[in-house]
Design brief:
Elements: E1 9-19, E2 24-32, E3 37-44, E4 48-52, E5 54-56, E6 62-71, E7 76-80, E8 83-85, H1 92-104, E9 106-107, E10 110-117, E11 128-134, E12 137-138, E13 152-157, H2 158-162, H3 167-170, H4 173-186
Parallel strand pairs: 4-11
Antiparallel strand pairs: 1-2, 2-3, 4-8, 5-6, 6-7, 6-13, 9-12, 10-11
C-alpha cells in the first residue's frame, strides 16, 4: 500500500457546470477511503505561461520587461511578467515567445523553462510555467493585444522586484512564484535537499 493512499478521494460522478472562455467549472462527487462523500467544485483551465525578460534602461540599470494592466478579479492595476494562456495544441515555449512579442513588442531568440507549479491545487488542474527569455530585443511591430486587453509596457529595475519594493507586483501570487523560479535558476537561493 502506498504511503498516501488513505488521503485520496475517488471520483463517483463529474458534471460540467459552466464552460467559460478561460476555464470550465466542474462539479466532482468524490468518496474518501473511509467512506465520506462530498461534492467539490473545480476549475479546469489551460496551462499559463509567464516570461521573465531582461534588458537595461537608458541609464544602464538592469530591468525586467513587465506589463501593467487592470485585473478584474481584485479590480486593481498589477505589474506582471508578460504571459497568458497556452492555446490548445500549442507548445508552451512557443506560447511564451508569442505572449512576449504580442504584449510587449519585444522578441526573444529563445526561452528556457525554469519552473512550473499549480497556481491553486485546491481548485485548479493547470500549471503556471515560467520561462526565462534569452536574446531579448525590441522589434518594430507594436503590441498585438487580445480584444479585451489594455496593457502598458514598463521597464522596472530588477532590484525593485527582487526586493519587494513594488506592491503592484507582490500582490500577485503567481508572479511571486515566477520570482522564486528565477532566484532558484540564478543560484541566488538553493533548494532544500533531503526533504520529500
Amino acid at each position: 500500500m502506498k504511503k498516501d493512499a488513505h488521503l485520496h478521494w475517488h471520483d463517483l460522478k463529474n458534471r460540467k457546470l459552466l464552460d467559460g472562455y478561460v476555464f470550465t467549472v466542474n462539479s466532482a462527487l468524490r468518496r474518501s477511503d473511509d467512506g465520506r462523500e462530498a461534492e467539490f467544485y473545480l476549475l479546469d483551465s489551460p496551462d499559463w505561461v509567464h516570461v521573465i525578460a531582461e534588458t537595461v534602461d537608458s541609464t544602464g540599470v538592469p530591468c525586467f520587461i513587465l506589463v501593467r494592466q487592470f485585473r478584474h478579479g481584485d479590480r486593481q492595476i498589477t505589474v506582471e511578467f508578460p504571459g497568458g494562456v497556452v492555446d490548445s495544441h500549442e507548445d508552451p515555449a512557443a506560447a511564451a515567445l508569442r505572449e512576449l512579442r504580442e504584449e510587449t513588442g519585444y522578441e526573444a531568440e529563445s526561452v528556457l523553462e525554469i519552473g512550473r507549479s499549480n497556481p491553486n491545487p485546491a481548485l485548479m488542474n493547470n500549471r503556471a510555467i515560467t520561462y526565462l527569455a534569452r536574446g531579448v530585443h525590441p522589434i518594430q511591430a507594436s503590441q498585438q493585444l487580445d480584444t479585451n486587453e489594455i496593457v502598458d509596457v514598463e521597464l522596472v529595475p530588477r532590484d525593485d522586484i527582487l526586493h519587494g519594493r513594488r506592491p503592484d507586483f507582490t500582490r500577485h501570487a503567481v508572479m511571486l512564484g515566477a520570482v522564486y523560479w528565477y532566484l532558484l535558476h540564478s543560484g541566488s537561493i538553493r533548494p532544500v535537499t533531503g526533504v520529500s
